[in-house]
Amino acid sequence: MKAAVFHGPRDVRFEEIDRPVLKQGEVLLKVRACGICGSDLHTYRHGLFLQLGNPLDSGRVLGHEFSGEVVEINGQVSGVEIGDRVVCVGIGANAEFIRLTPQMLESLIHFDDSVSFVEAATTEPLATSLHAARLGEATDGETHVIMGAGIIGLGILQCIKASVSARVILVDLSEKRLAKARELGADITINASDKNAVEEVLAITGSEQLHVVEAVQGNVDVVYDCAGYGKNFKGTSVLEQAMIMAKQNGKVVIVAVFEQDVTIDYNIVVRKGIRVLGSWAWTRDEFVEAFELINSGKVDRKPLVSHTFELEQAGEAYETQLLAEEAIKVVFKP
């Protein structure tokens, strides 16, 4: 079968590999759409998080945001039939087919043709955004700042706007992504490539000088770090910026992963009473709720899919996803 195989940093190749052989109680899915996740990019750029790929004799197959059609079932699998359109989570979906184990089948959701395979494949990242938004607990009238307007940051914006009337500020380096944020309802956008994001946010929300520690207190209820800290980045991290923006007893929700260590002045955390919350993935209920947001039309994911590629274009697809000024979400359509 066709597959995009990762062999090392900046080396993903189109190859023919063996089609999966099912064990008892497993299902074979014809992959119809699979997105390239931010974690896939960490692997692609630097060889990090290799456990998120399905190992082969040579290389491994990435991809865990996917949807498809059931084409084979081994044994009795309750609630699953040939031809079912489903969205699921597992690893190794940058391929023509993927084997769904009983554990993977626990996340299975059926859908009809009112939702496209590409839209359904964005369920997993939306669930990640929903989990972060839940931690932020936005309420009417609050101010929330999202640092990073990729698929996760934009998903957090969508989740907040689908539920409450909070003011949301999006910060990014890409004008294309910021334009998309405005399209999706962001109240204010800031391009950090030509403006100091912290100064802009403080000017918008207000600030004061703290006593005891040399620090500024902003007036933001919740800041979401959807940017992290790249391996080769130099300068003030988004996490440090978030600490300044946050109000007294505010929250900082860390959604991104970090490729290098960040130094934090924890006296600021203590003095401001900041609650720092790590946001990893989602619960089963959040995965279902994320799909229902798409299925009901409360959240429109179509505008976020900027590019689609065939598996034969594997290298080009990954390189395109790296281009923040051009791409938001790149999806394989095997």
Describe this structure in words.
The chain has 334 residues and is an alpha/beta fold. Helix content is 29%, strand content 28%. Strand 15, helix 8 (238-245) and strand 16 form a beta-alpha-beta unit.
Please describe the biggest sheet, giving its number of strands, its sense, and whether it closes into a barrel.
7 strands, mixed
Task: Give me the count of strands.
Answer: 19
Counting H and I runs of at least 4 residues, what is the number of helices? 11
How widely separated are the two ends?
10 Å
Class by helix and strand content?
alpha/beta
Q: What fold name goes in the CATH topology slot of the largest domain?
A: Quinone Oxidoreductase, Chain A, domain 1
Estimated share of beta-strand residues? 25-35%
- On the 0-100 scale, what is the average pLDDT? 95
Q: What would the principal axes of the Cα set say about the shape? A: globular
The CATH top-level class label of the largest domain = Alpha Beta
CATH superfamily of the largest domain: Medium-chain alcohol dehydrogenases, catalytic domain
Helix content: 25-40%
Radius of gyration: 21 Å
Give the topology.
Layout: E1 2-8, E2 11-16, E3 27-35, H1 38-46, E4 54-55, E5 60-61, E6 65-73, E7 85-88, E8 97-100, H2 102-105, E9 109-110, H3 117-120, H4 123-136, E10 143-147, H5 151-161, E11 167-172, H6 175-183, E12 188-191, H7 197-205, E13 208-209, E14 216-217, E15 220-225, H8 238-245, E16 246-254, H9 266-272, E17 275-278, H10 284-296, E18 305-309, H11 314-321, E19 329-332
Helix pairs in contact: 4-5, 4-10, 7-8
